[in-house]
Amino acid sequence: MAELDLPTPYDPKLVEPKWQSRWTERGTNQAKLENPERPFYALMMFPYPSAEGLHVGNLFAFTGSDISARFHRLLGHDVFQPLGFDAFGIHSENYALKIGAHPMELTPKNVANFTRQLGRAGFMVDWRQKVDTSSPEYYKWTQWVFLQLHKQGLAYKKAAAVNWCPTDKTVLANEQVEGGLCERCGTPVEQRFLEQWFFRISEYAPRLLQNLDWLDWSPITKQAQRNWIGKSEGAQLTFDIADHDVRVTVFTTRADTIFGATYLVLAPEHPLVDTLTTDAQRAAVSAYQDATKKQDLISRKSTREKTGVFTGAYAVNPATRQNIPVWIADYVLMEYGTGAIMAVPGHDERDFEFAQVFGLPIVRVVAGPDDAADTPLGDAAFTDDEGGRLVNSAQFDGLSVADAKRTVTEWLAGRQHATAVTNYRLHDWCISRQRYWGPPIPIIYCDDCGAVPVPESQLPVVLPNIPDFKPDDSGISPLARHEEWYRVLCPTCGKSARRETDVSDTFLDSAWYFLRYPSATRDDVPFDAVRTTTWLPVNSYIGGNEHAVLHLLYSRFITMVLKDGGHIDFEEPFTRFRAHGMIIREGAKMSKSKGNVINPDQYMEEWGADAFRMYLMFLGPYEEGGDFRDQGISGVRRFLDRLWASVRDATSDGAPEPDVVRKLHRTIRKVGEDTANLGYNTAIAAMMEYINVVRRGERVPHRDEVRPLVQLVAPYAPHLAEDCWEALGHTTSVFDAGWPAFDPAMLVDDEVDLVVQVNGKLRGKLRVPVDVAQEAAMAMALADDGVAKFVTGDPKKVIFVPKRLLNIVV
Ligand code: ANZ
Ligand code: ZN
Description:
The chain is an alpha+beta fold. The chain is about 35% helix and about 20% strand.
């Protein structure tokens, strides 16, 4: 039998370009978009095309997605795996600013470089359907999405205190602020008061939360969303104000502590402050309000010395009927609840600190098992009330906190002082950006007609090519410097009007891109109805968990909005989402400043894309990530060399060896199960183990022993697999060859544990072949010292139960 037609040795420099051009010529990676039998939409998070090129972290993420997509194809699905570029936004713009280039010129270059690198890595991408969020053909529809929200009453403009990054000179959504710092550049965020467009995502909070119960998503991602949405059950309690005809409503999660509410606090911005403030207090109150305006939200939330001012007014505690003073303080935020609280200094730490500074009364109303009702309260009182019972609370004394929350709320509700409410931490999504590199918000301001949406027929509102795109400190968009652009006629009345000069947040671009892919070539609709029903929702989405409360939440929201608008018939975009881990290098996060960034090109050049892909997957469990070390890659490459040589040397003479076949079937099962669960590292280990068996003692493998291995390795090392597959005599792609089946009969253990007894007492255990005969088992048992020492003289009787038991009676 002649050796197969494979050059020696394995040379990825030949194999990889060969298959990359074949795939292109043959359209191998193109999905059957029309009438697929088993459509499977495999999505990976599209990159923003930075000038540095593909990061190894991108490659790690994409490889894992690509393996899953290719595996599903081998399982017989019609897999659609598109990719594109999140090319608008601050990342790209900042880079352009840094190197003094224009984003309109820089972006296409970066996209071209990325495309080259992605091609080099061998992803099964259907490039016919690519999207580029910065192209007018795409952002026309991003603007359309904005208009749908506007139409549905979900987009509104308001002046609000917003997060302002002084370095990036832009507003940030709450989701883009991490621990008080700008998510992008790490600068402490300031508070600014600006007119901004918002989306009412807060209205969707209950639904966004509820659906998490059934979504098949990584638990960490779901938990992050739950925490961010922040459901809080409590009550709104209203307090009459002495000598005024107004009432103040507070939000509390602890209605049970009402008897301990010894003062009220309003946020300094609260609309009732002016009404309530007495003449004597007015100057102090105004001064405090002014001081608060200058502060950012972060320091307001941080724990520091409490400050505040008495308004001069008194509220009536609806439970005790006592007058309690009304204060203002910056630790109460206007954005949460009702912007007012009842202060319970006996049981809330911040209230306690405040009460101590200003000498306000502190009353205990909950006592733990060891406290008496009059035990003084100290710093330790706030730790855990939940196990306690009410004291100093009239008819409610003795109730548990949980019962009292309900009973007190009902009691006050009966007297029109309470309503049970659920609050959510999720704020509306601020989508205005005073930047250049984004889709202009499609609104026109007219003196007579107000804010008029740009008619859909006039989309896109094209982003003009202006040289002075640099943002400044004014908080005014660069587009506002271009009257020739913003001066337009009102679409409604035809009078002179002015375009909105802010652009929208990049996260709006990516909040609907998955809807665009199947219909990317249509310019008459954002998404084709049939294509959308065929391919969506996305079957499998794989990406980084850092997007849990940003992109992944926004995408869910936009999908719900489009469903409510009657544009689609599902409300969750991603049926299954898996968060992958992170690649670090020698224990540290890769970053340019640390100088430990990996250039994927160089590795692919030296070892081949297949080896590099596989190595990245071998670093650790995909969902956990791994530590990049140079040493490991040679082992992976050696495996590919051996696999290659095994196919080359394989014979079709004779029959495969039963032992090897048994191992093969175990390997098929293991690799299939592990690949399905993203357990790529253990799947690779199993294939390595198998090749060791195949090549044991440099034996010549049989083709039937290696052919299925080529199929198993295909998702991991697609170029090599195609080449081997062709060498084995196939003329079609290995990805259309199906996934090999394993024979369950082959998985039955070939060895078993045999229990050895002497006179019915356990004396040992033997590992024996399944079909061992009684004499052989006896001989093995007697060769075992632990057994032999109890067997004196000839046995009287031997009881042998095959595969289980050998009992020697002496
Ligand atoms: C009385 C009380 C007693 C409270 C007690 C807590 C403990 P979560 O769980 O995060 O929803 N609060 C309400 N609105 C606020 C605002 N705008 N600014 C600052 N604090 C506000 O927190 C709800 C609790 O946070 C509410 O319950 C209120 O204080 C405070 F032993 O009311 B509580
Ligand atoms: Zn008008």
